[in-house]
Amino acid sequence: MSSPFVLLRGPGWKLPEPLELRDPLEVLEVKADRPGDLPGLLDRLDAVARSGRPELLAAGFLSYEAGVALEGSAALFRPPPTPLAWFGLFDLRKAAEPGPPSPVRPDGFDGSFGLRSGMTREEWSAAVSAIRAGIARGDVYQANLTRRVVRELPVPARRLADLLYADNAVPYAILVDTGSVAVVSNSPELFLEVDLATGRVASAPIKGTVARTAGGSEEAARALLVSSEKDAAEHLMIVDLVRNDLGRVCTPGSVHVPALRSVKSYRHLHHLESTVAGTLAPGAALT
């Protein structure tokens, strides 16, 4: 078992980057079978954020299943193969600049993934039918049906993070190595940002994607994305969902959409992105 560390890359973090964090002052972890411990971890993160100590940084992850547990959907909860949550509390004064990345593909890895689905077509169809039935009953109005895909890679997590970022330098790249589990993310999307000084809360959901040169050119691809009725409808549905979520923790009337369906371009893809913002209500927890 290795020592835990976190590697941050990309301008979205608003930190000196790239940044490598080691030797955590404290480790906060919620095991997969202990969802009842999540509120305590979130309270600790909230206390760190409000501590007035800018040298402290909590870095880690919340699993997708943590959201299900926190919403009280016990019937839908399935323990993940990772911790429900893991965060290291680091001293930024001890952060180091990581060594040079290793973008060269190692022997035995040609860049293809050969992914195996964790769900059969029959299981997928059954899940779709269950969601439709739930919508008809009024249990939900929108659901995100996901599946887990698996591939054994002849690549250490650190090398995989290097390869992904070298191929597509996104605003939010992170590698979290807990010592027993590694999570690699290379994302263009801002999930949530809170400015403690002003109380501003913002999220920048992405929905709607097209290959950078679809239709023969970048200009054609962007036009194709902007004119897509399907992408527009799905995007607005996500924006409304984020508006609703922020409305639960923001001052009434403060939630607004300063940017709607902007086209953001990266190395391989164009995305539709909006910004939803509001003012955190007095007494609302950051987590």
Q: What does this protein structure show overall?
A:
The protein has 287 residues and is of the alpha+beta class. It has three domains: 5-106 and 156-187, no CATH class; 115-150, no CATH class; 190-279, no CATH class. The protein is built from six helices and 14 strands. It has helices at 38-49, 64-70, 121-137, 157-167, 218-227, 229-247; strands at residues 5-9, 19-22, 26-30, 56-62, 85-91, 116-117, 149-150, 172-177, 182-187, 190-194, 200-204, 206-211, 256-265, 269-279. The mean pLDDT is 90.
Described by the principal axes of the CA atoms, the overall outline is: globular
Strand content: 25-35%
Low-confidence stretches: none
Sketch the major β-sheet. Answer: 5 strands, antiparallel
Provide the number of structural domains. Answer: 3
Kindly provide the radius of gyration, computed on alpha-carbon positions and rounded to a whole number of angstroms.
Answer: 20 Å
How many β-strand runs?
14
Lay out the secondary structure:
Layout: E1 5-9, E2 19-22, E3 26-30, H1 38-49, E4 56-62, H2 64-70, E5 85-91, E6 116-117, H3 121-137, E7 149-150, H4 157-167, E8 172-177, E9 182-187, E10 190-194, E11 200-204, E12 206-211, H5 218-227, H6 229-247, E13 256-265, E14 269-279
Antiparallel strand pairs: 1-2, 1-8, 3-5, 4-5, 6-7, 8-9, 10-11, 11-14, 12-14, 13-14
List keywords for this structure.
287 residues, 3 domains, single chain, 14 strands, 6 helices, alpha+beta
In brief, what are we looking at here?
With 287 residues, the chain is an alpha+beta fold.
